Amino acid sequence: MPFLNIILSNGIAMDKQQSRVFSLFFRGSLVKQILIGLVAGILLAWLAPEVAKMMSLLGTLFISALKAVAPVLVWVLVMASIANHRQGQKSNIRPVLILYLLATFFASLTAVFASFMFPSVLTLVVNESQLTPPENIAEVLKGVLINVVANPVDALINGNYMGILAWSIGLGLALRHASDTTKALTQDLADAVTNVVRVVIRLAPIGIFGLVSSTIATTGFEVLAGYLHVLVVLIGSMLFVALVVNPLIVFWKIRSNPYPLVWACLRESGVTAFFTRSSAANIPVNMAMCRRMNLNEDTYSVSIPLGATINMGGAAITITILTLAAVNTLGMSVDVPTALLLSLVAAVCACGASGVAGGSLLLIPLACSMFGISNDIAMQVVAVGVMIGVLQDSAETALNSSTDVLFTATVCIAEDNRISDNPLTEKNNG
C-alpha cells in the first residue's frame, strides 16, 4: 500500500506539473513568449546554423496554419455579426470607415514627403519570378469586381478577401431574416472558429522560433545591409504615422490625451501582429482587447474583421516609398501631387491583397506602371521588397492591425463621450 501511495502521489504531482506547464503556455503573456522564441531562434542560428535551417518546418507550418484559418475567420465573423445585429442597435461603422480612409490618406502623404526628403536609390537585381502584374488601373478595378463575385468556395481556398467579404456581408444580411436558432448557430460557429484561431496564435512563439532561426541561418543580416536606407525610410514613416499622425486623428475625435490608448494598442495588438505578419490572424487579439475595454460589441465585431481587410495605411507607405525609390533610381522627375494621387490609387487597390503576408508588394508593379516603369524593372523592385520583407512586412502589419483596434476604440469612446458628456476615463484608455 505505501508503494501504491507513492506511485499515486507521484502521478498526481506529475499531473500538477503538466497542468502548470500547460497553463503557463496557454495563459501566459503571449508577447513575452514571442520574445523568448525570437531570442532562442537568434541564438540557435548563431550557435548551430545547420540545425537552425531544419527548424524552417516549424515556421512553415505556423504560417500555413495562419493562411488556412484567416479566410474562414473573416467569413464567419462578418456573417455572424451582421446576422445577429438587431434593429435599433447603433454600430458606428461609418465613423470607423471614415477614420480608416483618413489614416490611409495621411499615410500616403507621409510616405510621399518622406520619399522626397530622403530619396532612396535601389540596386535593382534580376528576378526570375513569373508573376504577371496588372498593366493599368482599369485592369485592377476589373480584377477587384471579378474577385467580389467569385465563387465563395474558391474565394475561401484562394484567400480572395474581397470575395470573402462580399459573400459574408450578403449572407449576413440574408440571415437577418432567419430564425433565432439559425442566428444562434452562426454565432456559435463564429465563436468556435475564433477559439481555433486562438489556439493557432498561442503557437506563435514556436512558429516564430522556426522562422527566425531558419531565416538568419540561411541569409544572415547581410541581405538587409544593401537596402538599409530604404528600410529606414519605410519603418521611419510607419513609426511617424503610428506615433504622430494616428494620435492627432484620435485627439481630433476624442479631444483628450490619445497616447494611453495609442500605447496600449501598439503594445497588445501591434507587437503580436509584428510577429504573426497577418492582420486577419490578429483579429482575435484585437477583439479580445476591445472586449477588455468594454467597447460596443456591435461595433468591434464588424469593424475589426473589416479593418483587417480594407485598412491599408501600412501598404500605402510600402507601395509609395518603394515605387518612388524606383523612380529615383531611374532618374525620373515626378511632382508631389502626382506622386500622392498615384500612390493613393495603388493603396486603395491594395485592399484585395490584404491579409496575406507581403501582399502589398504585389501592388508595386501597378504603381510602377502608372509612372511608366516597365514590368521587368517593377518586378526587380518587388524582389527588393521581398529581401527586406522580414522587417518591412512585419512593421506594416503591426501598423495596420494596431490601427484597426485604435480607431474602433476611438469611435466608441467618442460616442460614449457624446452621450454622457463626460471626460475620457482611464478605463477607456485601456
Structural account:
- The protein is mostly helical and 430 residues long.
- It has a single domain (28-420), classed as Proton glutamate symport protein, CATH 1.10.3860.10.
- The chain has 20 helices and no strands.
- The protein has helices spanning 2-27, 30-47, 49-54, 56-83, 93-117, 137-148, 152-158, 161-175, 180-202, 204-219, 222-225, 228-254, 259-276, 283-292, 297-310, 313-329, 336-349, 364-370, 375-387, 389-420.
- Helix 4 runs parallel beside helix 8 (161-175), helix 4 packs across helix 10 (204-219) and helix 16 packs across helix 20 (389-420).
- The longest helix is centred in the last third of the chain and has 32 residues, at 389-420.
- The protein is globular, with a radius of gyration of 23 Å.
- The termini are far apart.
Comma- or semicolon-separated keywords:
430 residues, Proton glutamate symport protein, 20 helices, disordered C terminus
CATH level 1 name? Mainly Alpha
CATH architecture: Orthogonal Bundle
Instruction: Report helical residue fraction.
Output: over 70%
Give the strand content: under 5%
User: Which structural class matches the secondary elements?
Assistant: mainly alpha
Outline the biggest β-sheet.
none
Q: How many structural domains in the coordinates? A: 1
Poorly predicted sequence stretches spanning 5 or more consecutive residues: 125-135, 424-430
Question: What is the H/E order?
Answer: HHHHHHHHHHHHHHHHHHHH
Q: List the total number of helices.
A: 20
